[in-house]
User: Which sequence fits this backbone?
């Protein structure tokens, strides 16, 4: 069983190393405006997955993926030497489509706002199907509460009357 903190530290170090090597050592013209967003490594420290984003369209993304694939050996050797592990982790590059997901969520939120506004507009024009007050109110209860069931001829208890 590998320590989870150690795995997280190694994953963060892999992300930093790959970003540094991509920025300074890889001179491939196919490499676009790339950002290394995350890295995850298996608990046995043998396989690392590196997530990246690319600024541009689908052709820029495909060209950057090809450039990373061709530089995989250099990146793996650099990461292996820097981490000092017995086995260098194999690297897998995955396009992180966070921007597409953000755009989709924004569209869903806009649609929900539009639907809420329509519901509010319809609710403002709505009228009750029956009476405005659907519950039967008992108006006789208010009059009975004032009497309290006392006889007016009899003095109230405890007012200092004659005791024998």
Assistant:
């Amino acid at each position: 069983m590998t320590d989870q903190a150690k795995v997280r530290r190694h994953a963060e170090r892999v992300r930093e190393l790959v970003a540094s090597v991509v920025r300074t050592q890889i001179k491939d013209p196919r490499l676009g405006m790339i950002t290394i967003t995350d890295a995850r490594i298996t608990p046995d420290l043998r396989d690392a997955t590196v997530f990246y984003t690319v600024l541009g369209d689908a052709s820029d993304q495909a060209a950057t993926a090809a450039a990373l694939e061709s530089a995989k050996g250099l990146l793996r050797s650099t990461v292996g030497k820097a981490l000092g592990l017995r086995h260098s982790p194999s690297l897998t590059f995955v396009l992180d489509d966070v921007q597409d997901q953000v755009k989709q969520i924004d569209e869903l939120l806009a649609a929900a706002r539009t639907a809420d506004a329509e519901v509010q507009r319809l609710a403002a024009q709505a009228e009750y199907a029956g009476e405005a007050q659907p519950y039967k109110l008992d108006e006789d209860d208010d009059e009975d509460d004032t009497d309290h069931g006392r006889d007016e001829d009899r003095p109230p208890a405890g007012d200092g009357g004659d005791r024998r």
